[in-house]
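step 3/5: co-fold with fe (ii) ion
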Amino acid sequence: MEDRERFESALRATGREGVENVLAELARLGFFEAPASTRFHLAEKGGLLRHSLNVYDQARVLTQVECRLRPGLEERLPEASVAVASLLHDICKAEIYREEVKHRKVNGKWEDYTGYGFDCSAFPLGHGEKSVIRLLRWGMPLTDDEMVAIRWHMHAWDLADSPEARGCFGSASERCPLLAILIAADGLASHIQEAK
Ligand SMILES: [Fe+2]
Ligand SMILES: [Fe+2]
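step 4/5: write tokens
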């Protein structure tokens, strides 16, 4: 199954209100063609879609294992929440990357190549919070755990230097098992599965 088809069917399988509108908005913004980063993991066409599926696969495996190790956890980790949080955590990146000509030295000689730069000025709302706001605006209701997990999935990388932000992140980490799953899945996908 093609990546896009798999992404769409996994999202539709959640039965969540607003899925069709979310898919239409993602297509409009270029999500399905976007890279996952400028030069780190999956900096290529379709990379963001692939990364979202990788995080989804990692999150499902981790959820199964954790639920076996910690009986009762299933209630906090419904399948639909795991799918929504993992597939949609990075939709904030849908439109921020632009193809641009870059330069690199190969065998002592400079050459041009097409790479990616980024520009978040069109809708400068941050990272996880931008994904949450977009989904709500596009008509997809989210549970508290889904919002908290998506908002804080960047872990300390997205931690403003304020006591309130650190306090929120601390509480989120303690109270939201979906956040722990999403952070671990994102890290495993980016640093192991997608490593160059
Ligand atoms: Fe992210
Ligand atoms: Fe990610």
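step 5/5: annotate
Residues 42 and 123 are 23 Å apart (CA to CA).
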